[in-house]
Every structure is written in structure tokens, then in C-alpha cells.
């Protein structure tokens, strides 16, 4: 089943001159560990010369954080000892798009390869997804996925000016940012009319940029929108989820709007989720293999009546491994402000048929069509790297299939408080530090599924994040203690 992002005719190096006949320049971008696009503009002549073999790209994008501060503990890919050497960036010609808000400039994603082995560097997000997909493809399966993002939007006083969030916040405290619209009004048909040009331009730009939106509406929260991206092949879905943020951040600048994908931008209000859906298919027929063609007459729980044996093992792998991969689905200090009880975010190892309080929501008959049987991972927030999240879900699930794991806990009881523990479900990490220590520990599921090299690198980047937080002096601390202690 092809994704809408796939071009009709495969692009080859030989077809590039004709494809780019009227162009003079090309934009290239790769993805770093935080899911941030890192790239450059090159001349067409330069691009044609490097389209096949690739080009040198400074490895420091895997040696510094999201604000270009080199990590406290130097990591293997990029460090002083190797001189922050170049790695190889190879354009993925199948990722071709044109940027509609930049006069249709051609755009390609790149993959990052080790210059010595020509294999993907261990932390390359696209490479990790391909590695996990390779495991299921060897067995004759494919994977489909979908992504949903919630995000807050703020407006600057002069909505006609182009301003970056960083520039605004240099002069104004974060809490002074006014919401795009006020109040709680999910699924409103009238609120988007207030910012109609922006609302439709984001939708239309996503279609033109091949990261199509399937559903687009207001969510409960001041200035909050939610986008459900069109379902597609898992690898392409990861790309489109990353590019969706690029569209929103680019289009919003001309309207003086600041989109915010933080997991929890405002105290006392719901956070921003980044739910991911995943299903498995037969590579030969394209049929959904999570669906049980003959209902189980005696299931352990009614929730899994229509879930195949393979689907049960897959679910077991996700649930068993979830506590060990939390930094991938909750990667920032702020992520854990969203994962608190009773805020429509799951905090335990839990699952259930059509249960939105659970970490894993099973979507299956009788409420869904057989071909739509899938898992929705509800732990991940909008602040995640979608490549890592989808790689983690696929990797854990397939580990469960390979090891023939059994579902470790009963389904979450109906009527439970949203986000609460039920039936002894294990509480997930309460902080990035706690999550990362479990992720990096000897014998973690993460090491078994993703390998030591990846765990050491990504875990090292999270250690850096935790240390910065430990050293930070927050506004809350100053306001609370400046006079009273």
C-alpha cells in the first residue's frame, strides 16, 4: 500500500537534470537526535554532482544539543578527538518535494552515513527506522503508521511581523505570550475562522509538501490545534511527521504566530500529545495481519477477541519494553510535566480496547473495520522525534513477536480516572533522569532492541539535558524563595 508521499515515477540520478531543469538551487536537510531539521541550500550544479555519492556534512550535529551547545560528555560520533569530522550525507531522491512557501524550491531529505563503513551512523533517525523495518521485511511483513500532533499557538502583539520565538522571548517573559484564541473549545468550527488564512494555508501547504493532513481541528485548550496526518508506510510517515512541524513553523512566521510543540507549555492545562498509530501488513497481499479472521471464542480478555496471535505478541513487546525506552517517547525534561495523573495522558504500563486513558489503545472490531486494526501509542508527546518513536514501537513490538512474549497485564478497567493506575499497572518514569537511567542500564530492553551504540549515544544526549536542567535556576524558584528564605 503506497503512501501519498511516494512519487509516481521513481527518481534516479539520470532523471534529475530534467526534473530540476528550471531550477537554480536545491534545499537539503537531515534530521538530528531531537528531530530538528539540519540542512543547507546548494546550487543545482553542486547538487547534481553529489546526488549519488553524497557529500561531507559536519558531524557536530550529532555532537551538540538543540541550541548548538556541545555535549558535556563527548560522544562517539562527533568529538574533539575525531576533530568533529565530516560524516557523509546522501540525498534520498525518493523524498523529493517542492517548498510551496519558498517559491517551490526543490527539497530532499538526506541520510547520514559513517565515512569509514558507509553504514548509517547509529543515531541517524532515518537509519534507525530502516533498521527496524528491515527486521520485519525479512519475515515478509510491512508496517503502516499514522501520526497526530496537538500544539499550542501564541500570537505576537504585531501579527503582521515576522518574528521568531527566541527573539520575542528575549524581550518578554514566556507567560506573557497571548494565546491565538482564548478558552477551551475543542472541535470548534468558529474558532479557526478567527485566523482563517493561516488555518487554510497550513492545510494546503501540507498537501503541496506531501505531508497531507487527514483531519485538522481545534483541540481543548487556548489556541490549541490538532492535526492527524494521512496514514501511510511507516518510514514515509516518520518523514512526513517531521516535515509537518517544518510546515507549521514556516507558515506561521508570516502571520506573527508562534506554534509550540512542547509537551506541557502551560501549567494547569492539558499537554500536547503526539500519538502514533501502527499496524502490520502482509508484504505480499497488503492485508492487515493484526486482525484475527476468526474471532477467538475463549480469549483471556474480551478486548483481544479480534487480535491475532502475532498482534498479541506485538502488544506484549510494546508493554514489556515501554518502561525501558521512555526517553524516546518522552525525550525532554518538560515531557514529564505532561505525564501526570488526570490530564488525559497515560502514566502507567496499560492498554485497552478503545481506551483513551491507556498507554496503548487497541483499535479493532467491533468499533473499527478489520483492515483498520492497529495500536495507538498515547504516551508520546508532540516534542518527540517521530523517527525514534516509530522505530521504538516497531522494534519493541517485533521483539515481542520474536520472543513470543505474553501480554504482561490485564486491560485497563473502564471508568478508571484518566491517567490513573489500574490493576497494578507499572508507573512509568516521573522524570527524564529516572527514565534515562533505566534506558541506559546494563541489560535494558533498549540495549537488546537497538544496540549498545545507539543507547550510549542517545542516552548521553539525555544526560546532557538532565544536567542542564539540574543547573538551571527557574522563575518559580526565584519567585518562591527570593523574599522568604
Structure report:
There is one protein chain. With 485 residues, the protein is an alpha+beta fold. The chain folds into two domains: 19-121, Glutamine synthetase, N-terminal domain (Ubiquitin-like (UB roll)), CATH 3.10.20.70; 141-472, Glutamine synthetase/guanido kinase, catalytic domain (Creatine Kinase, Chain A, domain 2, 2-Layer Sandwich), CATH 3.30.590. The chain is 30% helix and 18% strand. It has 14 helices and 15 strands. Strands 7, 8, 9, 10, 11, 12, 13, 14 and 15 form a nine-stranded mixed β-sheet that branches. Strands 1, 2, 3, 4, 5 and 6 form a six-stranded mixed β-sheet that branches. A hairpin with a 5-residue loop joins strand 5 and strand 6. Helix 5 (196-208) runs antiparallel to helix 6. The radius of gyration is 22 Å and the shape is globular. It starts with 15 loop residues before the first helix and ends with a helix. The relative contact order is 0.12. The model is unreliable at 1-8 (pLDDT under 50).
What are the key terms here?
transmembrane helix; about 20% strand; nine-stranded mixed beta sheet; about 475 residues; membrane; disordered N terminus; ATP-binding; 14 helices; 15 strands; six-stranded mixed beta sheet; globular; about 30% helix; Creatine Kinase, Chain A, domain 2; ATP binding; Gln_synt_N_sf; 2 domains; alpha+beta
Amino acid at each position: 500500500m503506497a503512501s501519498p508521499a511516494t512519487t509516481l515515477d521513481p527518481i534516479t540520478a539520470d532523471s534529475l537534470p530534467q526534473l530540476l531543469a528550471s531550477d537554480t538551487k536545491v534545499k537539503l536537510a537531515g534530521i538530528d537526535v531531537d528531530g530538528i531539521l539540519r540542512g543547507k541550500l546548494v546550487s543545482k550544479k553542486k547538487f547534481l554532482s553529489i546526488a549519488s555519492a553524497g557529500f561531507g556534512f559536519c558531524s557536530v550535529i550529532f555532537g551538540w544539543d538543540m541550541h548548538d551547545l556541545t555535549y558535556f560528555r563527548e560522544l562517539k560520533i562527533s568529538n574533539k578527538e575525531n576533530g568533529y569530522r565530516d560524516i557523509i550525507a546522501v540525498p534520498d531522491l525518493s523524498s523529493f518535494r517542492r517548498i510551496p512557501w519558498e517559491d517551490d524550491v526543490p527539497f530532499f531529505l538526506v541520510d547520514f552515513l559513517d565515512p569509514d563503513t558507509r553504514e548509517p551512523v547509529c543515531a541517524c533517525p532515518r537509519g534507525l527506522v530502516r533498521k527496524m523495518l528491515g527486521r520485519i521485511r525479512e519475515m515478509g511483513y510491512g508496517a503502516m503508521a499514522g501520526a497526530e500532533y496537538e500544539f499550542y499557538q501564541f500570537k505576537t502583539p504585531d501579527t503582521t511581523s515576522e518574528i521568531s520565538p527566541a527573539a520575542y522571548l528575549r524581550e518578554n517573559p514566556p507567560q506573557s505570550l497571548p494565546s491565538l484564541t482564548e478558552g477551551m473549545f475543542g472541535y470548534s468550527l468558529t474558532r479557526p475562522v478567527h485566523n482563517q488564512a493561516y488555518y487554510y494555508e497550513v492545510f494546503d501547504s501540507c498537501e503541496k509538501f506531501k505531508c497531507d493532513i487527514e483531519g485538522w481541528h481545534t483541540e481543548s485548550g487556548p489556541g490549541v490545534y490538532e492535526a492527524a496526518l494521512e496514514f501511510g508506510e511507516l518510514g514515509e510517515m516518520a518523514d512526513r511527521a517531521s516535515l509537518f512541524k517544518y510546515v507549521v513553523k514556516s507558515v506561521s512566521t508570516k502571520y506573527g504566530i508562534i506554534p509550540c510543540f512542547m509537551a506541557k507549555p502551560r501549567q494547569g492545562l492539558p499537554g500536547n500529545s503526539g500519538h502514533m498509530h501502527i499496524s502490520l501488513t502482509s508484504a505480499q497481499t497488503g492485508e492487515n495481519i493484526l486482525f484475527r479472521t476468526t474471532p477467538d471464542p475463549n480469549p483471556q480478555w474480551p478486548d483481544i477477541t479480534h487480535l491475532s496471535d502475532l498482534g498479541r505478541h506485538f502488544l506484549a513487546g510494546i508493554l514489556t519494553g515501554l518502561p525501558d525506552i521512555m526517553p524516546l517517547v518522552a525525550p525532554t525534561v518538560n515531557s514529564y510535566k505532561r505525564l501526570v495523573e488526570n490530564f488525559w495522558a497515560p502514566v502507567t504500563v496499560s492498554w485497552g480496547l478503545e481506551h483513551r486513558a491507556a498507554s496503548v489503545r487497541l483499535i479493532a472490531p467491533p468499533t473499527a473495520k478489520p483492515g483498520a486494526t492497529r495500536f495507538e501509542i498515547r504516551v508520546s508527546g508532540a516534542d518527540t522525534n517521530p523517527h525514534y518513536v516509530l522505530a521504538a514501537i516497531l522494534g519493541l513490538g517485533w521483539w515481542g513477536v520474536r520472543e513470543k512474549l505474553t501480554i504482561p497485564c490485564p486491560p485497563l478497567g473502564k471508568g478508571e480516572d484518566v491517567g490513573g493506575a489500574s490493576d497494578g499497572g507499572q508507573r512509568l518514569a516521573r522524570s527524564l533522569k529516572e527514565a534515562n537511567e533505566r534506558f541506559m542500564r546494563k541489560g535494558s530492553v533498549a540495549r537488546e532492541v537497538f544496540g549498545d551504540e545507539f543507547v550510549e549515544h542517545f542516552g548521553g544526549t539525555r544526560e546532557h539535558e538532565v544536567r542542564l536542567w539540574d543547573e538551571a535556576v527557574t522563575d518559580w524558584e526565584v519567585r518562591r524563595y527570593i523574599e522568604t528564605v
